[in-house]
Amino acid sequence: MIKFQLLTKENMAENALDNYDRLQNVRRVYRKIDSEYMLVEDVGIMDWSFERKQAVAKALISDDYITFGAIREDEIVGFASIEKQLQGKYIVLDMMQVSRKYRGKGMGRTLFQLVKEKAKEMGAKQLYISACASEETIEFYKSMGCKITDNPIKKIAEDEPFDLQMVCDVD
């Protein structure tokens, strides 16, 4: 059984993601071509090194983020993290991941709903997402009601030039 809970320094260790399976096989990505987003073939593998997993775990429980986890038998199998500070009308969804063998089972939907509710509690009007351009990732966010924004947060868009900048109303 999967349980969902707020992750904190008290209930999550810095090594909690050491065995996390981030692997994602990418076949197609969205790219802006002549002012329109189109799917193009771009085969690759997205994964994290051991060091990256430890850095992510440490960041998730830092004072900068609010993180919800999906937990199965004391193992984190998914998480979604938002920044604690509003950026205008936005709360930034900093990171959202579901372990490979748990994808497609509704966990991402539940995690997304939890951060969306928290963002609303915090006074945000929209979640802001700098989303990996992979077809599967963008289709997930679209299914959650997200859309590409015409008004991206400049620094985030510049830091992640291949990501799609998306927003989702929290109401």
Automatic annotation (TrEMBL):
Residues 28-171 form the N-acetyltransferase domain. The keyword Disulfide bond does not apply. It holds the Pfam family Acetyltransf_1. Gene3D superfamilies: 3.40.630.30. Keywords: Transferase. InterPro entries: Acyl_CoA_acyltransferase (IPR016181), GNAT_dom (IPR000182). GO terms for molecular function: acyltransferase activity, transferring groups other than amino-acyl groups. The keyword DNA damage does not apply. SUPFAM superfamilies: Acyl-CoA N-acyltransferases (Nat). CDD domains: NAT_SF. It comes from the Bacteria. This is GCN5-related N-acetyltransferase. It comes from Clostridium cellulovorans (strain ATCC 35296 / DSM 3052 / OCM 3 / 743B).
